[in-house]
Fold:
Amino acid sequence: MNLPLADMSSSNLALPAIIFTLLLIILYALFNSFIGGRHKRLPPQPGGAWPVIGHLPLLTGKELIHNTLGKLADTYGPIFMLRLGTNKTLVVSGWEVAKECFTTNDKIFASRPKFAAAELLGYNYAMFGTSPYGSHWRHVRKIVMLELLANHRLEKLQHISRSEVQNSIERLHELCKSNKKALVEMETWFGDITLNTIFRMVVGKRFSTAFEGSGGEEYQNALKGFFNLFTAFVPSDLFPFLRWFDFGGYKKTMKKTAKVMDEMHDKWLREHREKRNFDGVGSEEQDLMHIMLSITKDEDFSGYDVDTVIKSTCLAMILGGFHTTTVEMVWALSLLLNNEEALKKVQSELDELVGRERQVSESDIHDLIYLQAVVKETLRLYPAAQLSVPHESIEDCTVAGYHIPAGTRLWVNLYKLQSDPNVWESPREFRPERFLAIEKNFDVKGQSPQFIPFGAGRRICPGISFATQVMQLSLARLLHEFEIKRPSEEPLNMEESVALNITKKIPLEVVLTSRLSPQIYK
Structure:
């Protein structure tokens, strides 16, 4: 993470003002630290903080941030404070402390910090996942939870994920039929299932057919760029006095990306309105955009117009469900391929409960206990986000006996929290069996603070049911119908890289052969 240097040749007058502002910030920080230290017990801070930029150099090395923060936790404990620019950031990596944050202090930590990507890509904070805590967030969240992602709603849409998995499975069988064996890059395969499923749920079209006419390729490139932009380092996020500058050109790129995505969502919204006005919409055609048009026409959204709320919510659903679900399935299959005994157990369970005379259906998933354990263990080792999406305190509070000032940002290091050796035996080993024994009652819905891959409290990820539904059905069908092997005898490279969540650095390629009778697919 390198800070680009600005060309100041045309703005010499700004230099004295910046220097003066920096001096004021340093003096304010020193004064605040001195006064606060005399009266308040603050969490420990690592040494080596620099003037102005604070602990930022600790996070700019080659090591992934969650690993750096994990090592700091080994030294300073499960709760410590970093100073990143002008912001105080609380880092939590112990489940007892996280539980306190998301229960006793849940409302206090229910807000989000304001940053450039949420403003420029998230419709000026209208997107509910990045909205600050308040009436707008509560209103949209209620709609999402009751009307869009409730279990009864997902049950009505099960036919979508079922048909998308079926289409993708059939393509694999065709490959195996013509070549006996097929070498397949799995992130693309999993991604097609997830993205087509989400697009059909949100706008009523498959991703591959949603761009009839112009703009398709541009939108797809913008969608890919969105994830990188959301994790890009924008100096003004840590130094607000730099908001007038665009070091690295990230803000310009964000505005361009937002414009492309907004134009496409605008087009889909117009199409939905036209269909409602002229043809009407049957209950089986009620995608997310149609539902929101029905329930938001007379709503007041605290300063946002209805179209903005609909577009931002649809975008949030697409972005929130696609990347994390796809990557988790890649990790799950990679872990199984490097642990052949576990792979055999999954396939034996499928053969015993489903047999080889029919395909897996949604009704079978509940009984596939070992497969569920594999999914849980994958989420424990590689949570949907290695660090929780940042929270921000809206008032002063106390956590683990320490004073936490209002405006403090909160990171929960889920990667470290879910590897606590006091909770998990051999925590970095892949052992699905642990969820069949001592930890069998741990669920993924935030009720077990030792295991919160989707977060907890008010800001828990609302798409848990969707993600687990797609993951379990896709993996069950794949593992039931194909023999899957690594391309070589060498174990798969499990090196990590980080985007919005932990991704596998080396693409996952596997060799597939059909393991069920061809008669089943006729």
Confidence is low (pLDDT under 50) at residues 1-13. Residues 3 and 204 are 42 Å apart (CA to CA). The radius of gyration is 24 Å.
